[in-house]
Amino acid sequence: MILVASRKSELARIQAEMAIAALSGAGMGERMQLRTVSTSGDSGKGPFNPAVGSFVDRINELVSSGEMDIGVHSMKDLPPELPAGLEISAVLERGSRFDCVLGPSMLARLPTGSTVGTSSARRRAQALHMRPDLKTVAVRGNVGTRASLVRPGGVDAVILAMAGLERLTFVPPEGYGLYPLPVDYFVPSAGQGAIAIVSRKGFIESEVARRASHPESRSEVEIERRILSLLSGGCNSPIGITAISFGRGYTVRIQKLSPDGRIEARITESIRSLDDAERVVSDFNAVEKVKFGD
């Protein structure tokens, strides 16, 4: 029996079932069993902007120890460097990488002074950069909990990841809609929309797991995570990184903002492969120095 670990939320279970289906199709058969796990980020007792890795820590510990064989994660939750002995054995075909607004209108058309909920420092800074008049409030909980806050007497809108809503087949309440956010203002987190399968190095089924990987999605994510690592990963300022494949190359966007959204450094470049990541980061650092100073 191969034990597969995921978080307990409805979305996490859906993503784990997607991973199990992909692994089964790659040749792992019907020998998998899903086990759900609580992580430190699920406790609801920590800060609104949890530490990097808090939604994956316990699962990775169980995989490292051999108590679990495979961990399934939202890629954006994984820190750029995994614990020793673990590897990303597969990346499933990516869903939407973009953010969206759940509200009565698109973000640009919300009334002046509207209240927008998000627990993400990146999304908060991006929203304020686009609309300095907005009031942002921290919200926590799973996707359903955060979505339920959009109501008369609650917040006017919330910013959420489109991929999660699509996987949950979420239907907005009457009078509200889902409005995709422009990538020029809202560069997503590295890995957003992708599902990672993590296993121990040398795991007997690693080669089978690798066959479940979607090559294009994996290449994009590897570029994004490499850039994140080169930018020191746990950057305190809100940062978005995305690599979109086209033809024989990738369009890379990097965006960094001050927490209040007033200062922005951003670049868009075309690259051929992962080998170009250091050049892109060097170019971005030059722009960042001009915008943010030393």
UniProtKB/TrEMBL annotation:
<dbReference type="InterPro" id="IPR036803">
    <property type="entry name" value="Porphobilinogen_deaminase_C_sf"/>
</dbReference>
<keyword id="KW-0808">Transferase</keyword>
<feature type="domain" description="Porphobilinogen deaminase N-terminal">
    <location>
        <begin position="2"/>
        <end position="202"/>
    </location>
</feature>
<keyword id="KW-0627">Porphyrin biosynthesis</keyword>
<dbReference type="GO" id="GO:0006783">
    <property type="term" value="P:heme biosynthetic process"/>
</dbReference>
<protein>
    <recommendedName>
        <fullName>Hydroxymethylbilane synthase</fullName>
        <ecNumber>2.5.1.61</ecNumber>
    </recommendedName>
</protein>
<dbReference type="InterPro" id="IPR022417">
    <property type="entry name" value="Porphobilin_deaminase_N"/>
</dbReference>
<dbReference type="GO" id="GO:0004418">
    <property type="term" value="F:hydroxymethylbilane synthase activity"/>
</dbReference>
<dbReference type="InterPro" id="IPR022419">
    <property type="entry name" value="Porphobilin_deaminase_cofac_BS"/>
</dbReference>
<dbReference type="Pfam" id="PF01379">
    <property type="entry name" value="Porphobil_deam"/>
</dbReference>
<comment type="similarity">
    <text>Belongs to the HMBS family.</text>
</comment>
<dbReference type="InterPro" id="IPR000860">
    <property type="entry name" value="HemC"/>
</dbReference>
<dbReference type="GO" id="GO:0005737">
    <property type="term" value="C:cytoplasm"/>
</dbReference>
